Input
Amino acid sequence: MDDINVRSYTSQIPFAVHLGFELTKFEGGESEIRYTAKPEHLNTFDVTHGGACMTLLDITMAAAARSQTPETGVVTIEMKTTFMQPSVGPLHARGRLMHRTATLAFTEATIYDAQERACAHATGTFKYVKRRLPTGPGSANAMRPPSTD
Output
């Protein structure tokens, strides 16, 4: 895996940087992201919040979808998540591109704990879009968000 591609991909998602996600695999329709929840990412039971887990799954699936064509972007169309057990301690998610068409990617990802127990699983559908310059509040670009038409 090209370290430059990994750094480039992770730096393009400010929320992933904020959460501390570390992309460790990004090739051939597969991805892996490592994550250890910070105290502010825990729920009232002191386990990783479901929203943080869903974000990890979403970004892991998006990375798997983009890994074959990193010059394109993807947007989430649909995602289904199943929580199987609490996500505690250091986590890693593995994603896989199951099938793709010219415009859609069908993916799955699973979060594992340090003992390799599956904690949560998701399937997702993503639409491939042309990559554009950032448009957020910190951006100097006046471009619109990507079109999903």
